[in-house]
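re the bet — no i am not wrong, look at it urself. input seq straight from the record:
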Amino acid sequence: MLVFICVFVIIIIIIQILWNAKTSPKTEIYHSGESNIIKKIIDGCSIIHESYVPIHIWGKSGHLQSIFFSAIGRFGKTPKYESHRYKLGGDDGSLVSYDLFTTKVHKNSVTIVVVPGICNHSENKYIKVFAQHMNQHGYKVAVLNHTGALKNVPLTRPRIFTYGYTDDLDLVVSDLIVKNPGEKLIGIGFSLGANVLMKYLGEKPERQLNFLFAASLCQGYNLPECITVMSEWDNLRRLYYFGLTRNMLKVISYHKDKFESHSIKNNIPLDWKRISSAKALHELDHHFTAKVYGDISDMAAFYRSNSSSTYMKNIFIPTLVLNAKDDPLIPESLFKYPRSLCDTNPNVVFVVTPYGGHLGFFEGGYIIPNRLSWLDRMLLEFTNVALDVVIKNDVLEPKEVVFEC
């Protein structure tokens, strides 16, 4: 009898799994249809036309996808890789670093420039997995380490990364161009890193001449609106907001002595009790960021100027923008920015998956997913196809497009 019950339960589970896989909604693709290059990229990238099937038991929970990504990054052992860390001096005396993941089978005269998520860097597991995956297929990968995020890289100036500060990325890009003359770049940004990348490309459009194409993954586009929705309890966003704030406080704690000496020397009143008890990033900005940087008198203007939505209208290179519907951090109300951009910019494609959470996109198996995520596989295919299409077609000329929301 017990055997019969076990077999029956297993059959029910298998039927449910097969049914869930069969009924997975298709990925949504938005674009103007006016760019032949984008059409060719979309047609050649088969993975975005298929239904993303998440890991069976828990993959359709955006919360679990996001939590596992935040806690683990990627499942399985960290892959072997070869990398070298470069340290650069900024104009303000700051120390900026990036890691270059190299490959012995470098078959393309391009380098992928990765801008990680908030508080992230080249030592995060999801970055290592992605870099090694791209290395295996002939791509070099340069990863910006957000200033201050690495505990073992000291601050030489009392400054850490912010939401849309692009000077550090510009320094890395300039160094790559000097070290590899004639090579082109591919930009990929994760979450907050996507905001930084899109702002970097849009605020000075001539920078795009060094890039073949770009990808923006799971970002929120508009900081004032992000702060508003993250402060709400809907879909537990306020809890995630608290977690992001604690991560920022951890980064600040790495360099507390530096900030304390700076505040004493310059007579800047820092209330460390209020700073350490901040429960939201905008609270932390009020008690810490605005005072340390000294030149922020209007926080609303600061947030607007650091939002990629302000600059995306100027992007003319082929660009993939991706979000997941079940991302608990980025609600669908923020998708209006890439959708509107697609209406006015023919060189942008906006892809929306039904599942994936915030950068999770785990797949394979029942409980323990594959080390490589759907996102890793999709980015490789997109890069291969886009590179082939862009190289075979005439170089895009810069042009102004109108962006309205």
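see?? Residues 395-405 have pLDDT under 50 and may be disordered. told u. also The two ends are 63 Å apart (CA to CA). so pay up
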